[in-house]
Design goal:
230 residues; mainly alpha; two-stranded antiparallel sheet; 7 helices; disordered N terminus; signal; coiled coil; DUF4294 domain-containing protein; DUF4294
Length: 230
């Protein structure tokens, strides 16, 4: 399936209509008001809108599983978005610094801030919520939590965090792959619906995700499973 973009009519020509038709001057620059500013534009770029499939579940257990996953995903996504925002701010600031000493000093300040900001809240997460968060951090940053800790601290610290997390069945090396894992596909579906319903603030993933390819794959897999069970 191809992405479909809805084109909305922003202004009605009737507002400025005149009784007699007037030939338009191609040199005239048209203005539109955006948040109080007059901005000359020749075209308007709109955000792409995904046509989401209707939700259907093979049985009651699958429906309950989706509802629980949705609750957990909506809870932890803001943390993943915040991590991506902080890392982007860090990188921009580091690019402005010239001396290696200043970069190292600033990086330590941000590293401590991120850890302090997250530590209290993350302790409240269940192990399944923690694993979803690890996946979403990869979605938003393009790097696994293990890689981020390794960059921000050291390889040993990353190793230690990973071993500690593994005691709770959480792998910090886990990537987000909705085309390969059904749970990740369901998480992506939950996110897209939450973005459109404005439950969550949209933030583009760090890598391309072909949502329709995921829909096709997992819908076909479900059809095959249903046939095999008949």
């Amino acid at each position: 399936m191809k992405h479909i973009t809805y084109i909305m009519l922003l202004f009605s020509a009737l507002v400025f209509a005149q009784e007699d038709p007037v030939k338009q001057d191609s040199t005239i620059v048209h203005y539109m008001i955006i948040e109080g500013d007059s901005i000359p534009v020749t075209e308007v770029e709109l955000d792409e809108v995904l046509m989401l499939p209707n939700l259907s579940f093979k049985d009651r257990d699958a429906r309950i599983r989706y509802i629980i996953l949705r609750r957990k995903t909506l809870k932890v996504y803001p943390y993943a978005k915040l991590a991506a925002d902080r890392l982007e701010t860090l990188q921009k600031r580091l690019d402005q610094l010239e001396r290696k000493r200043d970069k190292k000093k600033y990086a330590k300040v941000i590293q401590k801030y991120i850890e302090d900001e997250f530590s209290a809240e993350l302790k409240k997460l269940t192990k399944t919520e923690g694993q979803i968060l690890v996946k979403l951090i990869h979605r938003q940053t393009g790097k696994t939590t293990f890689e981020l800790i390794k960059e921000l601290r050291s390889g040993w610290r990353a190793f230690w965090f990973n071993n500690t997390a593994s005691l709770f069945n959480i792998s910090l090396k886990k990537e987000f792959s909705p085309i390969n894992e059904e749970e990740d596909y369901l998480i992506e579906d939950i996110l897209q619906r939450a973005f459109q319903n404005m439950q969550l603030e949209r933030q583009k993933p760090a890598f391309d995700i072909d949502f329709y390819a995921c829909v096709n794959k997992w819908s076909q897999s479900e059809k095959k499973l249903n046939k095999a069970q008949q």
